[in-house]
## 1
Amino acid sequence: MKVLLVVMILFAGFYNAEAQVPPYPQAIQVGSNTTTMLVFPAAIKDADRGSADIIIQPVKNARNVLKVKAVKENFQQTNLTVFTEDDKVYSVSVSYHPSPFELAYNFTQVPLNLPPATERPLNDPEVQAQSELIAGLAPITRHPTQRAYAMEMRLNGIYSKGGVLFFQFSLSNHSNIPFSLAFLRAYHRDKTKAKRSSRMEKEVLPRYFAQHPTVAAHTTANFVVAMDQFTIADNKLFVMECFEKNGDRHLALKIKGKHILRAHPLR
């Protein structure tokens, strides 16, 4: 009877161990026209793909992020193993899908759209204070840039803190007519439009925007737009549009996902 009881306990323990949910994704889907992002809790030391049917590439300024893409369609299921600098090993199966349901897989056990547990989210007055501070900082980049109607809109920097992204822009007026800013529009969209289909756009609302109503002739004004933290895939763009009050001057600045991943952290 005791032997039978021991066997039952061992079997129950084995079953429970098998039934436990793994702490990270065990399978991912990749496509040939999309890029899938894998986010790890530590910097990537090495990675091994089970087949040449997929390509992998680390993100230069985000050493804990790995990009994965299919080389050809409908490849046979393979695997991917990633080694991180905290001496952990992650192994997942990789299968093809023409339109993957997920484009970002989280291996950190921390929600991707939230700041780390050690970083407190910013409240609205803090977002406003940080925006006003960033508006006066010197540019840390000078691209992308868009020029039209004797106007120039430029991204001067992207900063991150407390689950918020701060986009620092400059608006230069090279004309003899003052430019009055009516409103901004921000959205995500696909880089290219598929044949016989409309281009998908997803509008996003700023957390804070200190509006500069008028840019005088031959002057430059800086402004900051604060957004809840996000990332975008390689096949998408983040677009910021400026519209003139009582005029037709309109500028649209296109920001790539790689620019967002290089956001400068604020302490």
## 2
Amino acid sequence: MSATQFKLRGAAFTLLAFKNVSQALADTETAAWQQLLRVMTHEIMNSVAPIASLADSLGRHVARARQQEASGELLDDVETGIRIIQQRSEGLLRFAQVYRDFSTLASPQRTTLYVQELLQATRQLLAEQLAAQGIAVTLRVRPAHLTLHADGHLLEQVLINLMLNAAQAVTQTSDPRLSLLAWSDEQERVVIEVKDNGSGIPADVLDSIFIPFFTTRPNGSGIGLSLAKQIMQLHQGSIQVHSVAGAGSAFQLWFPASITC
């Protein structure tokens, strides 16, 4: 907010100007998390890489010792320990790589996308997994020729994450359903919605779901929705959620009219 005082015909006035700073705050928050992620992944990878390399070298030494008929029991114990070290080191390296990718997400490579084709391709990609869970999937795009000027690979990543989250949310639902919807509003903004009839999101955690590393699931990474939010910001768009505990959730991707075709 800024204030300017002036006089007109002897009377004093104050002109107040308000500016929406929500996007600037969101960008600042994302930048802070990215800096933290870069530091974290740098330290993890610097520490783990030598461990993985040492485990590999020790493994080769054990193999040579076996050829020289060293104590089999001792070598078995050493080999087991080395294998565990190597597996955990490689797991940590993969973990760090995921978060480094989050902190260095590239600019979108925009092309003209038919939204119908994008949603159909994503549904097909997960069709077998969703069918195995007995989840019915519906898809509707209006108008059918709706298009976007966006990065198809990044949007597919967002949609896959949202659909997998929805699939987890309906695991306790007797008639699990998932809907993929897309439309253009009166301002020519494109909206893509992933909706489920699952368990919903508790109101007390709804404001935290887009924070990096926040998760309510025992095996969750807390990165998927944060990544989705960042990808939408790269498209000058936003991601919104509407959820009712026990009734389901709807995640909406909003794209500004400037990137629609």
## 3
Amino acid sequence: MIQLFAKKGEAAEMPTREFKKVVLSRKSDYIVEQIYEALLRGDLKSGQRLSSESELAETFGVSKLTVREAVRSLEQMGVVEVRKGGSGGLFIRKADLASTVRQLENIMRIPHITVTDLTETRVALESYILQALLPNKKIPDKMLTRLKDNISAAEQYYNEGKNLERLQTNFEFHLLLSSLTDNNMIIILHSLTCDMLIRFFRLARPSPEMFMKTMDYHREIVAAIRDRKFDKAARVNAEHIRVASNKMTEKSKQQSYLHIGE
């Protein structure tokens, strides 16, 4: 069995897998691909320490120079980081999901992605989260408390006239739900969709009736999750998202037309 993981690292060791000796002309690329595949399989975890340079060279049957080239490539990709000091070494870099979302958002700012597209994507993601993923998980009491506190914070921001903070807090309510999945891909896609909608919704101010209806929806969703009635939570949530999107779209049109007419 070829050893990839550190023998004396602080992080918990994962079960090893078979790795192949390098046979391609550009050997460093092959190392990069094998480590990336190990990440996709889940064999390597965020924050995990890898073997030393010498051990990796022996593992892959290459020179230390080739290992260094591979490490440089992995660093540029944001996959690994080299830490200095007595407890230093080569580590799998912890994921920066917020940065990933920002980069993807810039890429996705293209024509023909409408509010309706984003809304239906959000409904699909959140319905899957509520109906397929959360029923298999224990919902911590502290998460229910955070959801309730979120509603209180949104009400306070609304009363203070802080529209952007109120809007971000409303979306944070839903982002808390996706965080419970522990699935980075779902979290990234969900965050990206919500961030793109925030860019649109921030231009329109909700009426008092619209805001209070949102709070009522959020309270009903929390109650359903607390009672583990996830189908009800998903149904109420989908209705809430579509109603809010339609009303905010219409509000945006009205405010835009008023602005243009001035």
